[in-house]
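Consider the tokenized backbone below.
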């Protein structure tokens, strides 16, 4: 098979499907390519949290270079607006709930860091405030007595990750975008002013497997393949330091209304919330094991029992009532993060016509990443400045970009 289009989008997750929809609505011919299915990666395997406060995983940069981290706040503010209008734009129930989020402090060290975070966020325009004592107990009576203080952001919440990317995919198809699924990009080559993607797919034929090769020629290419983005770009000499991260989440049995906020902990790895159906979802950084053979060998991370036990213990410590609930499901996924925790968003300077949209918080910020990158591809500019997020920043930075 051979095909041609205006824009080839690599990755059928939230960012890829959303960008394809925006581009197709502008009249662009779009083909979305994925090695698996729509929403098969981190977009459908996260816990659906909408974290607009700066997250605990960012503490290293908060301490060492707070002004760099402050560069994330404008895109967080834009993401709040984008999520608020998304159900109407897509005409789909996304189980969106923006009921507020708490970031907890339990020790004096946690509290000082929380104050520093809130000062930075407030200066950047994020609506966040400190709570302690009676006020914290009043709005969050489910928390353990050991929680000293918390920051509260009224816009935080969650959406259903199983529904968001498929809703974007359906909208993209309706706008004319085409999908090439179960097709892995084996090469991306310059082709006289455009780009040629060499695809390989394996299909079962009876008891045998048949390999098919296809090409897609595109005037522009958007790499929105999450943790796999670096692999695609590396053979072309574009080094983008996106570190794969194993996600691991759990869901409990349904229970009566208990937790009314998205809750994170400043000093312990925890993200916990209760969804509309009554299940409590627990995550927050206890890692799954990445495949030994690398991302080429497997698409999924492996669950780790000790990490599941650790995550459960923290949840029970912070919200004691969860100790009475049974875990009914756990799952893993592979996300990615840039070393400075900012998005990697924009054109690849060394590869004219190639763009990237990736980085941490890709569920929370994905709709905004997609809208901005589609504007850049279509018009050459964006409604808000994104120069700080270009991949080129890594080439000139003096920071140590090696992450654990």
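A designed sequence for it:
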């Amino acid at each position: 098979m051979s095909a041609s289009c205006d824009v080839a989008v690599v990755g059928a997750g939230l960012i890829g499907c959303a960008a394809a929809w925006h581009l197709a609505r502008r009249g662009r011919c779009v083909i979305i390519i994925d090695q698996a299915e729509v929403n098969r990666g981190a977009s459908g395997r996260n816990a659906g949290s909408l974290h607009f406060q700066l997250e605990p995983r960012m503490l290293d940069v908060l301490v060492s270079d707070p002004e760099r981290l402050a560069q994330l706040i404008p895109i967080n503010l834009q993401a709040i607006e984008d999520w608020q209008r998304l159900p109407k734009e897509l005409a789909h129930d996304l189980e969106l709930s923006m009921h507020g989020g708490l970031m907890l402090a339990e020790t004096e060290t946690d509290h000082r860091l929380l104050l520093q975070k809130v000062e930075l966020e407030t200066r950047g325009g994020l609506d966040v405030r400190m709570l302690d004592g009676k006020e914290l107990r009043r709005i969050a009576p489910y928390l353990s007595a050991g929680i000293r203080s918390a920051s509260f952001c009224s816009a935080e919440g969650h959406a259903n990750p199983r529904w968001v990317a498929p809703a974007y995919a359906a909208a993209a198809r309706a706008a004319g975008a085409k999908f090439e699924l179960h097709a892995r990009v084996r090469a991306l080559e310059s082709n006289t002013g455009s780009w040629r993607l060499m695809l390989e797919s394996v299909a079962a034929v009876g008891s045998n497997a048949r390999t098919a090769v296809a090409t897609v020629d595109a005037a522009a290419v958007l790499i929105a393949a999450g943790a796999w983005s670096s692999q695609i770009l590396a053979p072309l000499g574009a080094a983008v330091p996106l570190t794969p991260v194993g996600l691991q989440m759990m869901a409990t049995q349904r229970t009566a209304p208990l937790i009314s906020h998205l809750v994170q902990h400043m000093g312990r790895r925890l993200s916990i919330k209760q969804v509309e159906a009554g299940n409590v979802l627990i995550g927050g950084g206890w890692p799954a094991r990445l495949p030994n053979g690398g991302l080429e060998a497997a698409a999924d991370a492996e669950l780790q029992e000790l990490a599941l036990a650790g995550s459960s213990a923290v949840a029970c410590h912070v919200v004691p009532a969860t100790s009475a609930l049974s875990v009914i499901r756990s799952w893993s996924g592979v996300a990615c993060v840039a070393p400075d925790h900012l998005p990697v968003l924009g054109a690849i300077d060394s590869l004219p016509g190639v763009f990237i949209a990736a980085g941490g918080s890709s569920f929370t910020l994905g709709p905004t990443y997609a809208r901005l990158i589609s504007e850049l591809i279509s018009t050459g500019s964006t409604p808000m400045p994104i120069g700080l997020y270009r991949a080129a920043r890594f080439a000139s930075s003096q920071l140590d970009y090696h992450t654990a």
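Residues 73-90 form the longest helix (18 residues).
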